[in-house]
Amino acid sequence: DQQVKQNSPSLSVQEGRISILNCDYTNSMFDYFLWYKKYPAEGPTFLISISSIKDKNEDGRFTVFLNKSAKHLSLHIVPSQPGDSAVYFCAASWGYGNKLVFGAGTILRVKS
Amino acid sequence: EPEVTQTPSHQVTQMGQEVILRCVPISNHLYFYWYRQILGQKVEFLVSFYNNEISEKSEIFDDQFSVERPDGSNFTLKIRSTKLEDSAMYFCASSEEGTGGHNEQFFGPGTRLTVL
């Protein structure tokens, strides 16, 4: 099942700089997209989401951009902090109450 | 802040044994889910549950699996006869009923199931 892809297994960023995590999807039915953060031995923690009717959603240091024509979304973290070091999962769904389809995750390391 | 809880945090069992994984979803949520993550693989959907019935299940969720909401707070996943390949982290999630197409699902900390 390759409907949601995160092609970068890992990303290393200097503290204070921007982190950009990318995600591509193939299923045109997806209408809601989410980013989750996960620490080892914990469950995914919801970060930010975006509906397909929007192209940008911002929450503090986190901004998600959606490019529907390219079937691409990205998560920007500015400024990056060492506590942001974790695995970031992109997920997508269609319809309310339906399953989430996850990408493989990107390991973000923020160096101080 | 309300959160999803899961017990036990770690379950070790022998192949062929039955296990029950327990979850307490967020109290005002009406949609419940189980996902699992095999080591090194993606988080994958197992089953969703709404209004006391399964609303969707994946091909992984075969006859060996069942879910139940035995009372007003718990949501359980039962595996009748565990196999080695059932070893994984199992995550429970819940979401509230609302409008606007929002589908934020909130996850518990997971139960690590080890089948020997």
Q: Which class do the helix and strand fractions of chain A yield?
A: mainly beta
Mean pLDDT of chain A: 95
Q: Give me the strand/helix succession of chain A.
A: EEEEEEEEEEE
Oligomer: heterodimer
Question: Helix fraction of chain A?
Answer: under 10%
Strand segment tally of chain A: 11
Give the overall form of chain A. globular
For the sheet with most strands of chain B, the description reads: 7 strands, mixed
Number of strands of chain B: 11
Report the uncertain regions of chain B.
Answer: none
Low-confidence stretches of chain A: none
Q: What percentage of amino acids of chain B are in beta strands?
A: over 45%
Number of alpha- plus pi-helical segments of chain A: 0
Question: Greatest chain-chain interface?
Answer: A-B, 27 and 31 residues
Question: First CA to last CA of chain B: what distance?
Answer: 37 Å
Q: What is the CA-CA span between the terminal residues of chain A?
A: 36 Å
Largest sheet of chain A: 6 strands, mixed
Helix-strand pattern of chain B: EEEEEEEEEEE
**Global Rg of chain A:** 13 Å
Folded structure, characterized:
The complex is a heterodimer of chains A (112) and B (116). Chain A is an all-beta fold and 112 residues long. Chain A has strands at residues 4-5, 10-14, 19-25, 32-38, 45-51, 56-59, 62-67, 72-77, 86-93, 101-102, 106-111. In chain A, strands 2, 4, 5, 9, 10 and 11 form a 6-stranded mixed beta sheet that branches. In chain A, strands 1-3-8-7-6 form a 5-stranded antiparallel beta sheet, with no helix packed on it. In chain A, 36% of the residues are buried. Chain B has 116 residues and is mostly beta strands. In chain B, 0% of the residues lie in helices and 49% in strands. In chain B, the strands form 2 sheets. In chain B, strands 2, 4, 5, 6, 9, 10 and 11 form a 7-stranded mixed beta sheet that branches. In chain B, strands 1-3-8-7 form a 4-stranded antiparallel beta sheet, with no helix packed on it. At the A-B interface, β4, β5, β9 and β10 of A face β4, β5, β9 and β10 of B.
